[in-house]
Design goal:
This protein is mainly α. The protein has 24 helices and no strands. α10 packs antiparallel against α11 and α16 runs antiparallel to α20. The N terminus and C terminus are likely disordered.
Amino acid sequence: MAPNEHAASAPMAEEYEPLQDPGNSGNIKPQILSSEQYSLLLQPKKQRYYKTRAISRQVFAAAFASLSSVSIGFITSYSSLTLQQLRNDTSIDYVDSRDAGWIASVPSISSIVGSLFGGFLMDAVGPRMTLVMTALPCLFSWAFIAFSNSVTLLYIGRLITGIFLGIFSPVPQVYATEIAEPHIRGLMGTFPEAAVALGSLLCYGFGAITDWRWLAVVSAVVPGVPLFLSMLLLPESPQWLVKKGRLSSAEKSIQFFRCPTHNVKGEVDIIHTNILETDGAEISVWEQLRLFRKPQNWKPVLIVFLVFICGQFSGFAVVTAYTVDIFNEADTNLDANNATVIVGVVRFMSTLVSAALLDRVGRKPLLIISAIGSSVGMVSIGAFFYLRTVGSAEGLGLLPLASLLVYVFFNELGYGPIPWLLSGELIPLAVRTIGNGVAVTAYSLAAFIIGLTFPYLTALMSTYLVFWMYAVFSLSGVALGVFLPETRGKTLEEIEKFFAPENKEFKKIPFP
């Protein structure tokens, strides 16, 4: 967790007692310098060099950790390309009416197990080591799919990869949030979602030129190998190290991610003090459950939960899992595989736009814009299917593609990255293990429900009504965005204090 550049010079810093551990003898009170004071200690060129190096290290570390999210993109998008291939593959006992919905949605339900296990694992060994320990097992789990000779093995493979989906989902976000300086935390917080979009795009691209078995091999190797190798070389999250009492290791981690003139001991002191003040020290799961009685703990978890629900019930899991089927059902002259790749490109580009705007515009405006734009996209695709039903879709062959592009662009602008960013920013350290488990469970359960029910809903009612229903759910995010606290530019310590109204010193923090 990185303090704000200017927060260090606030009067509250004088109240901290110096930290002591076996590697830190003496009793010297840390002097916390402002960023202006840092600049006086170095020549301008050296100062710019060291600042650029520090930011680069943070960015590259977050990017490497987000390789696990590239794997998520492959897992969630795998069925979109392969369902059509499975229908024509006589080497496996696949029945479309029986298996399509389950193959698309099984990873979402098994990811709930993974999210709960991953939360405990991350708390026990740290976010970085969690990725190291799970990268290779995830790689080998794809073998069940690649070498399947029955639908049963295919189910098992999808079930196991779904478990890793749940483990991976919160980890890169937590790691990026805890190593980032506040002024780039929004940018780095979008990396995992951008990586998911990149994984989906790569899955669409490889899926268009290879069969479903080789696509499983690619899905394992492309993100898994570089993830394992890169995380071996990076330091652990300083916040987790402080929480575990490994203060010397925390200082080394901060030194790696900050300028040489940065007051490392001062930042460790701030992290340590915040942990003590917010009950974030090493506590059991049962103690975390008891802490949920406090409003400062359950309110932020509830907010993150609701943002996840709104985003998923806007229908995004349907778009990622059934893109090819949607285009095939639209019965236009578009090639379904090529249209899917175009959707993947726009999705990835949208995450880059979101990364550029989050630290400039803020979380609230982007969430509201995302909710409205996503709803417009769903209304439009529903309108096409309605016009086709009444026989008035002549000359509108590009409307399905244009509608999905509008939906994907606006959804990834806010609904995609913001829930994960908020899970790292809002959920207090004291209940982060359970809080992240609740948030990812909400995401997984909603994705499972949407993915599984889509084929049944389109069989029970007109397709356009299904898409219009998703449009209504998407609009609910507008109301949620109005009441969402803006976290742009705030330190994680300030955000935690906001939810503790009894702390008069922090009532002055200007949250809307």
